[in-house]
Q: What sequence folds into this?
């Protein structure tokens, strides 16, 4: 039997045996049978995500059903996320992101951003990051965004004859990663795990954050954080020789031709949606409903730019993952698990607000070695928010910190975006270490020196 077969069997044994052992633990008045059943199912989900034995999406839609069958939750509670706005924000965002990519508007924005910045090594990298910041609020799917920027990055490397794994090629590819990973934290609609996180926080705080409020708290520092990542790339990846990508990008723009009617209609539709999302505090229409209506308009003849047959080709399965994963926090809160987890973590995280900030960040960084961003968010954002409330902090405060912690990576397997970029063969593992390990350290300093005072100014830390 091959080593790979043994590894697969070992993963399956662990995924099934550990939850079964938890389910068979004798209950006590405090740790009831319902609580052990909850932990058994949740640990199964966590191990499935860690080992990849069951696809993330499948785990997502099985979770609420398993909770119901095991007597942990009622159907009303298990499927309650579907009655909220979070799955619909993601669903609408996926469709609108596809509209932007299918019409070529997203790629055109990225190309124009590079031309605006200039064609030298540093300017090319800055232009890619600038493009990422521009399209971040519109396209929530990180896989869709990295597909755009990876194609652009590889095109630049091939056109300029940059050898795979050379310094120059590595810098270009890492800039593509930073263009997606960094801006994701800036806006509520920049990544699927943002509305997931804030939806779970809302279960504790009692109200869902508005798009504008999230941007007020995170857009400025998110932009600084994104360019911090770029500066790290500048510092540790020096090109063998200078290059100029302007001619390459101009050629790609020429291939696209003038802006099409579909692109113009898409730009107008997305501009209107963006205006409504930004002003949600005025008209009080939830951004989830704005996104869904906007997505629907994309299919209306004369207005939109999508055809009905294209809907079946879109990957909307992430919506089922988000909705399924979202049921963990509310169910845990209802049966008392959140209080238990918060009380276990509280002694480790309790201290001054700044100490708690750094402790939560450290906890999230370590946790990220084992869980994907979506899985980590689904499982721990609720107890982290509960801890914030117990410490007298704003419910959003530690959730924001936690998000920065789970945005730190070392190995490609930790994040689909990083794995996608790495798979092209232009990066070495050593290059990733040289960029991502300093990024973890610099982010800790960034949180203490910039983010924490900024959030404190807005009353999140007292």
A:
């Amino acid at each position: 039997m091959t080593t790979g077969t043994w590894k697969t069997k070992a993963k399956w044994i662990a995924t099934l045996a550990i939850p079964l052992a938890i389910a068979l633990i004798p209950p006590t008045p405090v740790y009831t049978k319902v609580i052990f059943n909850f932990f058994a199912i949740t640990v199964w989900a966590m191990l499935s995500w860690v080992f990849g034995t069951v696809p993330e999406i499948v785990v997502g839609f099985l979770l609420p059903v398993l909770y119901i069958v095991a007597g942990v939750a009622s159907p009303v509670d298990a499927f309650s996320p579907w009655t909220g706005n979070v799955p619909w924000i993601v669903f609408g965002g996926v469709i609108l992101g596809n509209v932007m990519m299918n019409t070529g508007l997203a790629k055109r924005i990225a190309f124009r951003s590079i031309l605006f910045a200039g064609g030298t090594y540093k300017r090319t990298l800055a232009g890619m990051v600038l493009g990422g910041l521009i399209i971040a609020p519109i396209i929530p799917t990180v896989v869709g965004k990295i597909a755009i920027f990876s194609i652009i990055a590889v095109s630049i490397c091939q056109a300029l004859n940059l050898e795979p794994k050379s310094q120059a090629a590595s810098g270009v590819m890492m800039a593509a990663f930073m263009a997606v990973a960094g801006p994701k934290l800036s806006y509520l609609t920049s990544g699927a795990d943002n509305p997931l996180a804030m939806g779970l926080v809302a279960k504790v705080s009692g109200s869902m954050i508005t798009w504008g409020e999230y941007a007020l708290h995170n857009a400025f520092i998110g932009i600084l954080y994104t360019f911090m990542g770029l500066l790290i790339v500048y510092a540790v990846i020096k090109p063998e020789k200078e290059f100029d990508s302007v001619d390459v990008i101009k050629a790609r723009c020429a291939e696209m031709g003038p802006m099409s009617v579909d692109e113009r209609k898409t730009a107008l539709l997305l501009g209107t949606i963006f205006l409504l999302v930004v002003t949600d505090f005025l008209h009080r229409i939830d951004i989830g409903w704005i996104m869904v209506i906007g997505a629907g308009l994309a299919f209306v003849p004369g207005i939109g730019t999508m055809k009905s047959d294209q809907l079946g080709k879109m990957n909307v399965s992430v919506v089922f993952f988000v909705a399924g994963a979202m049921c963990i926090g509310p169910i845990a809160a209802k049966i008392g698990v959140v209080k238990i987890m918060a009380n276990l973590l509280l002694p480790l995280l309790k201290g001054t607000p700044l100490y708690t900030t750094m402790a939560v960040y450290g906890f999230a960084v370590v946790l990220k070695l084992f869980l994907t961003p979506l899985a980590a968010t689904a499982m721990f954002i609720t107890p982290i928010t509960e801890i914030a409330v117990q410490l007298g902090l704003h419910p959003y405060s530690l959730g924001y910190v936690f998000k920065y912690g789970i945005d730190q990576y070392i190995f490609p397997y930790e994040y689909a975006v990083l794995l996608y970029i790495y798979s092209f063969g232009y990066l070495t593992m050593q290059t990733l270490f040289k960029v991502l390990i300093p990024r973890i350290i610099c982010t800790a300093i960034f949180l203490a020196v910039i983010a924490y005072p900024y959030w404190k100014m807005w009353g999140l830390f007292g």
Summary: The chain has a mean pLDDT of 88.
